[in-house]
Amino acid sequence: MTLSVEERFENSWSLADNIFHDRLREEAAVEKPINLRNPFLFYEGHLPSFLFTRAMKALNVESFNPDYDYMFQRGIDPDVDDPTKCHDHPEMPPQWPERSRVVEYRNRVRETLRDNDRMHQLDSMGMADMSIEHDLMHIETLLYMVLQLDKKFKRWSRVEVDAAKPLLHRISGEDFPDYVRIPEGTAKLGRNRETKKQQWGWDNEFGELEVQVNSFEASTLPVTVGEYVEFMRAGGYNRESLWQEEDWKWRKRESLSHPKCLIPKSDSAGEWEYLTIHCTMTIEEARDLPIYVSLGEARAYAAWKGKRYCKPSFRTHTSRTSGSSFRTEFNH
Q1: Does the pLDDT of residue 79 top 60, yes or no?
Q2: Which domains does the chain have, with CATH numbers?
């Protein structure tokens, strides 16, 4: 079903509000669980500021709060290996404004967009896609922040364990194969500006490239918590041979011994709990859920299994290959 531009905007706003209002306590606004990111309050102001300064200005809408437009217009994206290297962005204020004022700013931006058919005007210019996708990308990264936030700042609730489990469990060789063969083919990466003039895209999407992909086998399911814990118990974080050079340096620098979604059990040495955005689960409860790890950790796990982590060209080709046996019927 195709959604109208109004529905798409409202849906993205609802998803953002679910994080800021439903998952976080009021005092979480100025918390910054990931050092390379800004506090939550910045992002609550950044989403409407981006919409206003990038899109609404194209409609010649006059600013009603230039200070907030500037303060929240651009976040930080420092180099992971050297955080001192960062693009230009507004200086962070010595004290953030009250959250209620930021919410007022957000609401007024939304109401301004709802007026005078402005959503359709932006859609005809290709800028609705830009604004909505920008919100959705931040919603994803905000969930990473919520995951790593101290639980005293969350609206913490223990859901029924069964509701969080997948509908299907992996039964090797019975319900479906562990691996499926993907035939050779061509993967198209990026976009061509000359043929996509009327379609919006991020700057790093342009420059089209065709890559020939040989036939390969791919796992039909995501790596699970239970499978990844086996890698940890086998000493995977201490075996340099499993890690690419830059990944190993990062692991050592960060003193990393487990992924962010696993936390040590306080009452049992060497045991772990699975951390979600709203509760913790035992490893046994979470064993069939997908694990969330960094690229470096994923590559090390793949090496431990004698496999390799799929390159973008392989993932693109797989997603466009008809008749594949990948499973999608899960509560993930």
Answers
A1: no
A2: 5-153 (1.20.120.450), 157-332 (no CATH)
